[in-house]
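Exercise 4. Each item below gives a protein and its sequence. For each, produce the structure-token representation.

Item: SlyX family protein (Comamonas denitrificans).
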Amino acid sequence: MNDTSTPAQLQARIEALEIKASFHEDLLETLNLTLYRQQQLIDSLQATVRQLGERMPEAGPPGQHNLRDELPPHY
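Answer:
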């Protein structure tokens, strides 16, 4: 800092710093909200994957068919 700065110059620098701080606070709030929404989406997707994993044993191993689900032969 220059020792010959006038009070008006110091006031202008303080205002510039306050403006930057305000923008940084707004950016931080925006990023926090974005992060919160992404975490909600991740939680939802994990629950969906868990539910699908629980259903897989009900479907049986791949390649195994239930005879009731097959169409009758055409005559």
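Check: Residues 7-56 form one domain.
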